[in-house]
Every structure is written in structure tokens, then in C-alpha cells.
Amino acid sequence: MQYKIMFILAMVIFGTIGLFVRHIPLPSSEIALIRGIIGSLFLLAIMVYSRRRLSGEVVRKNLLLLIISGGVLGFNWILLFQSYRYTTLSNAVLSYYFAPVFVMILSPFILKEKLSFKKMFCIAGAMAGMLIIMGNGGNNSGQYHHAAGIALGLSAAGCYAALMLLNKFIRGLDGLETTLIQLISASCVLLPYVILTEGAAIPVISGESAVWILTMGIVHTGLGFYLFFTSIQKMKGQTAAALSYTDPITAMAVSGLMLQESILIQQMLGGALLLGATFISERLSESD
Fold first, then answer.
1. Please, what is the angle between helix 117-136 and helix 99-110, to 10°?
2. If pLDDT is split at 50, 70 and 90, which confidence band does 67 have?
3. DSSP 26
4. Which residues of 46-82 are buried (b: 16+ CB within 10 A; e: fewer)?
5. Above 80 in pLDDT, residue 11?
6. What is the distance between the alpha carbons of residues 18 and 4, in angstroms, rounded to a whole number?
7. What's this model's pTM, rounded to 2 decimal places?
8. CA-based angle 209:73:205, to the nearest 5?
9. Of 263, 246, 274, nearest to 90 (Cα)?
10. Residues 169-178 pLDDT 10s
11. 43-62 pLDDT, tens per residue?
12. Rounded to an integer, what distance in angstroms lies between the CA atom of residue 219 and that of residue 56?
């Protein structure tokens, strides 16, 4: 029960990150870079405190994959944070949860896994749900441009799917160790990108914004990943898959209750179809 509570807490933390991004007046690339740096330092402190050591030989064997996956992780954040700015939080998160569908589609080509009729049915259901969300996500109004926001969310989902597939080829490192190195890699990849796109000047951050940024870096990155990887190693895959939907449910609650964003019945139906299809597909993957 302890690990289930830790996992649910991690999902709640991840589900509220959009609220924090909305309150940080910085470009998405700079937010992603700062998140990577603070998260790296937090996880590094945990590794030092727990006296865990990384094997240099194991890291060298996986170095290219770790660098590539770290870069993918960084740009995944940028796209997701941009999605938060263009559409409602619920639309962005539901679009992002299309990632398992991308994994199912690509797995036969990359992992040589069989795509069963049941999984194809789940893919069709998830796509139908996504089409409903795109068609009824609300016409562009005020600060929103829903089509662009959903497209950015789907692009972030594509990056996350690529990250999940890349992680399957990393050997000899546990989830926490892999994430630490990927966060460091993401920071190293994002730093020159931010300098080229935003300039080398250090951004001026107000006291309130600093609190939002530090909380996002420490809680939503360092602590969230620590709780996630500590708990998921002690849980059955099907249990983790079921509890992971605490994340989008939390995000939708934040969207409607805290940000006062409207959620249409059609969006709820599309979201239920999308999440239901991805949940069933994950259960099918566990039983293969």
C-alpha cells in the first residue's frame, strides 16, 4: 500500500505541472532547461545521500542512447509546455496521453512485436477519441488556439513515445539512474538551443516566479521522478498502468476547477474513449 500511495502522489504531482508552467513568464525552452538543471541536482543529491554509485563502464556502453534520449526528453518538455500555452490544460494532457498509441504503432517496426487485432482495435478507439477531442475541443477563443495546442501536445506525445522506445535498449541501469543521466543530457542539449534561440542573457526572474520555478524543478521533477521510480519497481505493471491515469484526471480537475477552463461533454467523451483505449492496450501488453 505504501508504494501505491507514493505512485499516486507522483501522478498527482505530474498532473499539476501545467498549472505551474502557466505561472512562469519565461519561454518554454528556458523553463525546460531550468527544470532539467534543478531536477538533475535534486536526483544527484539523492544518489550521493544514498551512497549509490554509477558504473562508468555501464554508462559508457549506453552513452549514445542516453544522450539522444536526454535530448528527446528536453524537446518533449518544450513541446508540452508550448501546448499548455495554446490550449486548455485538459486538451494538452489528453493529447499527450496519445503516446502509448504511437508506441503500439511503432513497436512492430522497432521492437519486432506483433500487433494483434485487439491492439489495432485499441488504436482505432484511441484515434476516434482524439478526433472527437480535436473536433470539439472548443473553437479558438481568447488566448487559445486549440488546433495548434493539440498538435503540439501530439508532437510531445511523439517525443515521449520515442523516449519510451529508446529506454528499452538501455541496459544495466535502473530507472532512477537512467533518469538522472537523461536529465543531465537534456540540460546539456537544451543549453546551446536556448542560447541560440533566446540569447545568452540570464533571464530576470521575480520572487513569485522563482517560487514557481523552484517548486517545478524540485517537486515536479526531482521528487516526482524519485517517487515514481521508487514505487514502480515494487508494483505490478497492471497496477501501475491503472494508477497512472491519476495524472490526466488530476490535470483535468486542475483545468476545470483551478483555471476555470471549460470542459465540454464531447471532450469528456473523447477523453474517456482515448484513455480507455490506451488503458486496455497497456493491459494487453502486460498479458503478452
1. 140
2. very high
3. S
4. beeeeeeeeeeeeeeebeebbbbbbbbbbbbbbbbbb
5. yes
6. 23
7. 0.88
8. 15
9. 263
10. 988 888 888 8
11. 999 888 888 887 778 888 89
12. 28
Of 157, 176, 228, nearest in space to 52 by CA = 176
DSSP annotation of 111? T
The dihedrals phi and psi of 191, each to the nearest 5 degrees, come to -60, -55
Residue type, 188: C
8 A C-beta contact, residue 13 and residue 223:
yes
Grid coordinates of 255: 483545468
pLDDT tens digits along 229-251: 888 777 776 677 778 888 888 98
Look at residues 153, 167, 162, 141 and name the one whose alpha carbon lies nearest to residue 274.
153
Grid coordinates given for 194: 536556448
Residue 138 has pLDDT above 60, yes or no: no
- All three cell numbers of 221: 521533477
Residue 172's pLDDT is what?
86
- Tell me if 3 sits within 8 A of 235, measured CB to CB: yes
Q: Which stretches within the chain are classed as H helix?
A: 2-15, 17-22, 28-49, 56-61, 63-86, 89-96, 99-110, 117-136, 146-167, 175-198, 207-215, 224-232, 237-243, 246-253, 265-287
Residue 72, all three cell numbers: 528527446
Quick check: 5 and 234 in contact, CB under 8 A? no
